[in-house]
Amino acid sequence: RGYDCEGFHARGVEGIMAYIRAWILWLLLSTSPAWADPPKIFTLHGASGILGHDSIENAPDTISHGDHIWKLEIDSLTLTQNPPHPFRAGGTVSPAYYFADEYIAAGKAADVILVDCPFTLGVLGNWHDGVRAYNQAAADVCQTRIDAAIAAGGVYSGAIFYCCEGDTDNDTKVNDFQSLFLAVMERYRATSGISDLPIILTTIATCSRRPRVNALQSKMSSLTAGGLYHVTTANLPQLDACFHLTALGQEGVGRRM
User: Which residues contact 96 (CB under 8 A, 6 or more apart)?
Assistant: First the structure.
């Protein structure tokens, strides 16, 4: 009743996709909480650094606003309240929840929705790609997830990039980092339609096995652009492996963001 089946079939794949998008929107609107204020949406971008490698048992139990932290499930595009570690499959302790907790504690939002965005899509495929991993295909998939969070009542408020270990492979990558990351910022802003979208860039941890790390950190910290905020991992406890922080270090960088 009420369905134009003939028109639906005539539209073919386009009609099917429109129906699916409408169904997802209905599902989100019908299952979303009744927000006192629109929650702030933040996207998370990164490889193994944002996954965490320390044991979950070592995660500091310091989250005070868990009931106001939400995670967009990327398979169902529904929200999970007070999500547990890990933030992403295959990870352990992530800075994401500590960032959201600190943001709420500072009175900047009543609720925060965290959206995991793909590290890379297409021909690029691992952390050695560094900043080059954030291609247009990845930005498009990210925007689909952002749209779902917006449909649930949120307001897109910023992107957090936890990167870019792969840019320490050679001097050319180090030298190209600043111009490439500025291009990434513009790509994600253009895709979202928010020209002044705040971007948080979190530096990699130190690593004595990669002599170019200090040079890349210098490039990161000296990069300036409107709406770009730099967060350092200096003096945070680190695991033996390059670039990976302990659970306590993950909490530390999350609360610095």
Answer: 44, 50, 87, 114, 160, 254
Angle between helices 5-31 and 136-151 (to 10 degrees): 70
Residue 5: how many CB atoms within 10 A of its CB? 7
In sequence order, the 6+-apart residues with CB closer than 8 A to the CB of 41 are 112, 113, 115, 146, 149, 150, 154, 155, 156, 157
Q: Which residues contact 66 (CB under 8 A, 6 or more apart)?
A: 82, 97, 101
List, for residues 61-101, the tens digit of each pLDDT value. Answer: 999 999 999 999 988 999 999 999 888 877 898 899 999 99
User: Each residue of 49-85: b (16+ CB within 10 Å) or e?
Assistant: bbbbbbeeeebeeebebeebbbbbebeebbbeeebeb
